[in-house]
From TrEMBL:
Name of a matching Pfam family: dNK
PANTHER family in the record: DEOXYGUANOSINE KINASE, DEOXYNUCLEOSIDE KINASE
CDD domains: dNK
Protein name per its UniProtKB record: Deoxynucleoside kinase
Residues spanning the membrane: none
Species the sequence originates in: Brevibacillus brevis (Bacillus brevis)
Class of enzymatic activity (EC top level): transferase
Superkingdom, taxonomy of origin: Bacteria
């Protein structure tokens, strides 16, 4: 059986890592979690986006590139399927929002070079919610670096995600996307919501695995 790569995406605080862990357990997938809070620029970024955005985005890009290289060599190329709590395309969503007009073209050139040969997702799970829900969940987890997060910035990130995903589905019709509105779902605290999400995803995973036998 050939391997599959599933990625879970959505704005900060939406539950990507929690759902990825549940998918890993339910469907016997290797779990890849992104490196976030090890980023030395994160706290500075939330305090001054313009000053620290390029350093932040380059750190994330290089770390995600290395993670995906490793996950390919250690698991995907060996026939082991993986679920990741991010998709590498998120780099462009945030970069286009935060980088200056001088730095963005340089960044996108580096992004294109690094990601050219990286493994691509066979299934994208997209979690979305309103700004109220996102901010409440960020507040609930109460992480130091997120306490100074600007609401207007998060509103823009949510809008950017929705716009990007619409374009992604249009330009990548062969990559299935399953979308969940997390205003109405809390799969972290309500077992019935988690069961609904897993039951919705299960048939598509079964199809992908059958296609790659």
């Amino acid at each position: 059986m050939k391997s599959i790569l599933i990625t879970v995406e959505g704005p900060i605080g939406i539950g990507k890592t929690s759902l990825s862990r549940e998918l890993s357990r339910a469907f016997h997938l290797e779990l890849l979690e992104e490196i976030v809070y090890e980023n030395p620029f994160l706290g500075k970024f939330y305090e001054n986006i313009a000053e620290w955005s390029f350093q932040l985005e380059m750190f994330f890009l290089c770390n995600r590139y290395k993670q995906l290289q490793d996950i390919h060599s250690k698991y995907l190329s060996q026939g082991t399927s993986v679920v990741a709590d991010y998709n590498i395309f998120k780099n462009t969503i945030f970069a286009k929002r935060t980088l200056s007009s001088d730095n963005l073209p340089k960044y996108l050139k580096i992004y294109d070079i690094l990601t050219e040969d990286l493994p691509q997702a066979h299934l994208v799970i997209y979690l979305t919610a309103s700004i109220d829900t996102v901010m409440k969940r960020i507040a609930m987890r109460d992480r130091d670096v997120e306490r100074s997060m600007d609401v207007a910035y998060m509103e823009n990130v949510i809008a950017d995600y929705n716009e990007f995903m619409q374009a992604f589905e249009k330009h990548h019709p062969d990559t299935p996307v399953i979308k969940f509105d997390c205003d109405d779902l809390d799969f972290v605290h309500r077992p019935e919501d988690l069961r609904y999400v897993l039951d919705t995803i299960a048939p598509r995973i079964a199809e992908l695995r059958a296609d790659r036998m």
